[in-house]
Structure to design on (261 residues):
């Protein structure tokens, strides 16, 4: 039985990936910070799908914890054939209003952890001639949006580059770039999303289905839903002179308690 390691597996998109992969018969290694919730999710998936589920409690902003997860990915006696880099969060503050330590910690989770875990998993996958690496990025990476948006832009570019490097090895790399998704993300970041229309929201299970379909197609970047595909099409073509204007408007929006995905 092949195994999949999912970070941030107890809620949101990460939990949707865990449930879908378990339903497809994958054994799981679930990574999250909240031990009690992690054990609860692991127990539920074991009972529901009769698959092996390993719970690995770790804070990916802590380098020792991160290395423990990386060691699990390097373990050739228990190979992991699917890596889902999903763990992440937002701060809901402008860069100047927040604390540098908070920005650094977020960057460690959104970027450094992706780098370290991908490097731990990819060589073994390439040697075995099979594997899937999915990194949950965001439409926010195509829009000027502080440290969060910059980290997501890095995640998308990094994954697209990795996909090219892995070509011909039997291993794929895909960056998932959703827009607003019904999860706990915005509540945890204390972002006011009451102004958003219902059509702007995506369902986490559908996002995962769309992503896995793009993985099968070999796509390096997956943008779920026609509306967000259209948004990304135009965002990628914004003249550079307008970037500063958009950044200023975005900062004003954040100050009012609203923000991008």
């Amino acid at each position: 039985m092949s195994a999949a390691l999912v970070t941030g597996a107890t809620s949101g998109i990460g939990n949707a990936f865990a449930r879908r992969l378990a339903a497809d018969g994958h054994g799981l290694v679930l990574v999250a910070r909240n031990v009690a919730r992690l054990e609860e999710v692991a127990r539920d998936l074991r009972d529901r799908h009769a698959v092996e589920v390993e719970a690995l409690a770790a804070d990916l902003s802590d380098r020792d914890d991160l290395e423990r997860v990386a060691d699990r990915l390097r373990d050739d006696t228990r190979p992991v054939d699917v890596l889902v880099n999903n763990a992440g969060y937002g701060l809901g503050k402008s860069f100047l209003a927040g604390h540098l330590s908070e920005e650094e910690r977020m960057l460690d989770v959104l970027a450094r952890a992706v780098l370290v875990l991908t490097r731990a998993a990819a060589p073994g996958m390439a040697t075995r001639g099979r594997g899937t690496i999915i990194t949950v990025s965001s439409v926010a990476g195509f829009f000027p949006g502080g440290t969060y948006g910059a980290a997501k832009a890095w995640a998308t570019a990094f994954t697209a580059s990795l996909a090219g490097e892995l070509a011909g090895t039997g291993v794929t790399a895909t960056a998932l770039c959703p827009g607003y998704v019904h999860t706990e993300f915005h509540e945890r970041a204390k972002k006011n999303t009451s102004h958003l229309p219902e059509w702007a929201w995506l369902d986490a299970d559908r996002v995962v289905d769309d992503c896995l379909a793009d993985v099968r197609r070999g796509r390096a970047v997956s943008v779920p839903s026609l509306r967000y595909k259209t948004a990304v099409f135009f965002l990628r073509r914004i003249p550079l002179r307008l970037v500063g204007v958009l950044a200023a408007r975005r900062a004003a929006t954040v100050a009012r308690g609203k923000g991008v995905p």
